[in-house]
Write a structure and sequence with these properties.
The structure holds 2 protein chains of 2 kinds.
Chain A lengths: L3 E4 L2 E4 L5 E7 L5 E8 L3 E8 L6 E2 L6 E5 L5 E5 L8 E8 L6 E3 L3 E5 L1
Parallel strand pairs in A: 2-11
Antiparallel strand pairs in A: 1-3, 3-8, 4-5, 4-9, 5-6, 7-8, 9-10, 9-11
Chain B lengths: L3 E3 L4 E4 L4 E7 L7 E6 L5 E7 L4 E3 L2 E6 L4 E6 L8 E8 L8 E3 L3 E6 L1
Parallel strand pairs in B: 2-11
Antiparallel strand pairs in B: 1-3, 3-8, 4-5, 4-9, 6-7, 7-8, 9-10, 9-11
Classes of the chains: A mainly beta, B mainly beta.
Chain lengths: ~110, ~110
Amino acid sequence: NAGVTQTPKFQVLKTGQSMTLQCAQDMNHNSMYWYRQDPGMGLRLIYYSASEGTTDKGEVPNGYNVSRLNKREFSLRLESAAPSQTSVYFCASRRTGEYTQYFGPGTRLTVL
Amino acid sequence: RKEVEQDPGPFNVPEGATVAFNCTYSNSASQSFFWYRQDCRKEPKLLMSVYSSGNEDGRFTAQLNRASQYISLLIRDSKLSDSATYLCVVTSAFYGNNRLAFGKGNQVVVIP
């Protein structure tokens, strides 16, 4: 069981470039989440997906899009990266009926 | 007002000593409560759930005070390996308890 996996681990982008962060879980969880973590800000929810085929905005969705490709995979896309999107991005998943979330190892993104 | 408030510290603790810290939450309708541990440059991992009656897991004791809306964590006989940031997490009642609200974390540094 790999749990929650994320790719890439590190990425450097120039302002205006686009990229997709990938997340997959093998725990058969229905709900999946994307967070960003910045120094002094704590974890903030970007988007989440309660089940396959549904997505909803979190606290800080501007500048991001998501796709719940199937039950296992939930991707986060930056269409036109900005320096303010420099952050560590975590994906998480949760089993229906439980509140505990399980996190992936994170993607460290720098936008120059 | 933030949904979860924590004093970030750092809490410098001599090895073998006891350290305790609290967090407060703003919404009395929050249903479930957790402490997560986050090591430097790693993902958050569940340390323990917090129950109304209080609970222990080895050297760790968690308490919940619903009347005053705070959660506490006590670490006894601190080890060097306990150095980490401890995140207070509650289910977000503003979103039907389907999301988690994270505190900014208490940074603990255990000193030899």
